[in-house]
UniProtKB/TrEMBL annotation:
Biological process (GO), any one: cell division
Region (Disordered): 1-24, 58-77
Organism: Staphylococcus ureilyticus (Staphylococcus cohnii subsp. urealyticus)
Chain intervals with Basic and acidic residues compositional bias: 63-77
Record carries keyword Coiled coil: no
Protein name per its UniProtKB record: Cell division protein DIVIC
Keywords tagged on the record: Cell cycle, Cell division, Membrane, Transmembrane, Transmembrane helix
InterPro entries: DivIC (IPR039076), FtsL/DivIC (IPR007060)
Length: 133
């Protein structure tokens, strides 16, 4: 049942064989081009994806840094307000007199200051610090 098939050496079969070879070569070239352009497209997609991920991470880092700086700025503004209030208090004669009496036990002419046995200087300082806050 096995028979060998031989090609007839006429011009028609040789032309058909050349067409088949040409089609096969054409398919190989098309396949190589598709593979090349597909690979380039895949490479571009991968590069863009990497750029997207790194940009997103960078944006997140910048957002965290911005939030930290905003908090720091808010604290500095609060400090500035406290310092301005303290400066206004230091320009007030009544406040200075009160601090001098409480912390340094200074008195006006004719006044006598009595220190009670239960009071410490550290207690009065902590009270004065609590008053400032």
């Amino acid at each position: 049942m096995n028979k060998k098939v031989e090609n007839i050496g006429n011009t028609y079969t040789s032309a058909e064989n050349k067409k088949k070879q040409h089609k096969q070569m054409r398919k190989r070239v098309v396949r190589k081009r598709i593979t090349l352009f597909g690979g380039l497209l895949l490479l571009i997609i991968i590069i863009l994806s990497i750029m997207l991920v790194t940009q997103k991470q960078s944006n997140n880092d910048d957002a965290v840094e911005r939030q930290q700086k905003e908090q720091k700025y808010q604290k500095q503004q609060d400090e500035e307000l406290a310092l301005k209030e303290q400066l206004n208090n230091l320009n007030d004669k009544d406040y200075i007199e009160k601090v001098a009496r409480d912390d340094y036990y200074l008195s006006n002419d004719g006044e006598v200051i009595f220190k009670l046995p239960g009071e410490n200087k550290s207690d009065t300082k902590s009270k004065a610090q609590n008053d400032d806050k």
